[in-house]
Amino acid sequence: MSDIGQSVDVEAPDDVAVLDDERSRLRDRGDEESSQVSFVELFYDLIFVFAVTQLAGYLVDNITAEGAVRAAILFVAVWWLWINTTWATNRLDPDAAPVRFTMFTLMAASLVLSMALPRAFEDRSFAFAAPYVAMQVGRCLFSADALARNGESAQARTSLRQAVWFAVSGVVWIFGATAEADMRVNLWVLALAIELTAPWLGFPVPGLGREETRDLDVAGEHLSERCGLFIIIALGETLLVTGARAAELEWTATSLGAAATAVASTLAMWWLYFDTGSKRGTRAFEEQHPGHLARVAYTYLHLPIVAGIVLTAVGDKGLIAHPHEPAAWQDAVTILGGPALFLLGNFLFKNATSRRWPLSHLVGIGLLALGVLGLGRLEVLGLALWAVIGLVATAALERLLLRSRAGAEQQIK
């Protein structure tokens, strides 16, 4: 009995010390396991499953030029919130109590923001804009404090510079929330332009200097894995859409064929990203400048990849709902445009990580573009089948070309 009591007394204080130790707010760069994605981060991502679902639902109900612009604004904002939080947790330790509680606070605010998405341009503009600004600025200030506590003053100044820029754009976000819908679009585009331009400029702030990519402290494996998980989130949304819609309908050859086509499209996109692109991106951090690669390939070039998946999910909803209707331009925008945008993003991403232009993706985009000729001739199901053919052909050609290149390099050796 005494031995058991002693073991409890010894272990309990250690657990408390780990949680309360100020230094534990940052990941230990000397520990390989510290760059692993934590359960708290995965828990946080669940909110963005809901956000992606909300965005897809909004676009389904607003397949117009105006609706597309508004959906694009909301999507970029959601992505920018997520990727900047990912940059923060790349350095912060989510298993430390202060960081964990901060993540929980961000989750609560993200849930409010996500619920407001469908009516952000109506009566819930403040419910969207206020949490967004608070999260962007608050996260930067928390990071600056955590870095300063650990003696990393240079990195702390970087977080402070980011906080200043997010505060400036935040004024525009909040002012836009008070404006009429059309003016709100213009102001929120301006706010996003400020935020997306700031990293390229180095977040310059008088008295605090500017940021250089060579000074960025990035754990490439962690960032690569986090972005891969967001791709999984987006692809999971397409499967949820397909399953939910198919379950509501009578099971016929047509409905099951439409569902199978939608699933095939999702599987093909998974293959195109994870077969070679994701692995190559992780290895590229060992060969290229980590800060520059992280900013270009993961912060910016993943935008069209995820957007293409979300747009494809919208197309899948239409496919399941009316597979035998004549394909219209709205169907082409989602069923062909979604995969084309996805391929374009992968084309640019793979070039950034491998320094090569994947010819297969250009062929795939060309095949998808030819599908436009089927408008007025093909049914929605036929158009979707053509999109799957384009994606599968791209994946097959990419694998063939990679094997051919690998064989040629082996002969040279």
TrEMBL record:
Organism: Rubellimicrobium roseum
InterPro entries the UniProt entry points to: Low_temperature_requirement_A
Keywords associated with the record: Membrane, Transmembrane, Transmembrane helix
Keyword Cytoplasm: no
Transmembrane spans: 42-60, 67-85, 97-117, 163-179, 185-206, 227-247, 253-274, 295-315, 327-349, 361-378, 384-402
Keyword Transmembrane part of the UniProt annotation: yes
The protein's name: Low temperature requirement protein A
Signal peptide (residue range): none
Pfam families the record matches: LtrA (PF06772)
